[in-house]
Amino acid sequence: MALFTDKIAVVTGGSRGIGKGIALELGKQGATVIVNYQKSMDAAVAVVEEITATGGKALAVQADVSVEEDANRLIKTAVDTYGKLDILINNAGTTRDNVIMLMGAEDFDAVIQTNLRSTWLCSKAAVRTMMRKRYGRIVNITSISGIMGNAGQTNYSASKAGIIGLTKSLAREVASRGITVNAVAPGFVLTDLTSSLPEDMLKKLNENIPLGRWGTIEDVAAATSFLASDAAAYITGHILTVDGGLAM
Ligand code: NAP
Questions:
Q1: Global pTM?
Q2: Which residues lie with the beta carbon below 6 Å from any ligand 1 atom?
Q3: What's residue 196's pLDDT?
Q4: If you measure from the C-alpha of residue 18 to the centroid of ligand 1, how many angstroms do you get, rounded to a whole number?
Q5: Cα separations in angstroms, 245 against 6, 22, 158
Q6: What phi and psi, each to the nearest 5 degrees, are found at residue 174?
Q7: Which atom belonging to ligand 1 lies closest to the Cα atom of 156?
Q8: pLDDT interval class at 205 (50, 70, 90)
Q9: Which of 114, 189, 200, 209 is 20 to 30 A from 67, alpha carbon to alpha carbon?
């Protein structure tokens, strides 16, 4: 039997990059996947089509998950359509990098809202319905920037460190209700988010990674799928780095 047979999953930011990889992996393992997107409707529909082409079930739902009404509507759509929500992957994220002297307060606020506020909003909405079923798996996508820090990312690192605190606090709050809350902290993974980094910087970054390469979307999707599965039933409040050893 597939890992996620009869499981309903929401993946925020499932249209591109890591979120797309996670949506495809959960779909492949039998989950019904709600593929959330903000702007990339065609890309989200393509992810849904890829899942349904192999016999899976999926639905694309537009929502800006940093907006409370949208986050609530996203979770409600999953519950109204499929009767429950088992798995929430808080993946949607963005960057607005700059050194602090050149970073505007609006760049700080935007990144906190998209990365941290969205995780809190979607988790709050999901926990309400998961508590009733006494079952849930929440996996938040943080970053090693939230653990190690990264020059030029005071806003992003703060949002990702915030997600780590949120993960541990919520894990303690809901453990008695059969809900686990964990996080995956990727290192460097080539996606639209990182594609603008200059070639020489990419090379230099590689030198510091013990496993000698960047991570792949599949590396992150596999770790996320594990934490969302029943094989991880006794793991909660854990931050799993998927970084080739960079942050150890
Ligand atoms: P990406 O390729 O830029 O994709 C970002 C995704 O987030 C897109 O699907 C986008 O939707 C969605 N999104 C952004 N803002 C949203 C909002 N307000 N509401 C709903 N969806 C929104 O980024 P990625 O590299 O895959 O990153 C995914 C996650 O992994 C992020 O949390 C990121 O911080 C984290 N991460 C990435 C790396 C890396 O090296 N790439 C490393 C560590 C952590 P649209 O397509 O509709 O715009």
A1: 0.98
A2: 12-13, 15-19, 36-40, 43, 64-66, 91-94, 114-115, 118, 141, 143, 186, 188-189, 191-194
A3: 78
A4: 7
A5: 35, 21, 22
A6: -110, 5
A7: 34
A8: confident
A9: 189
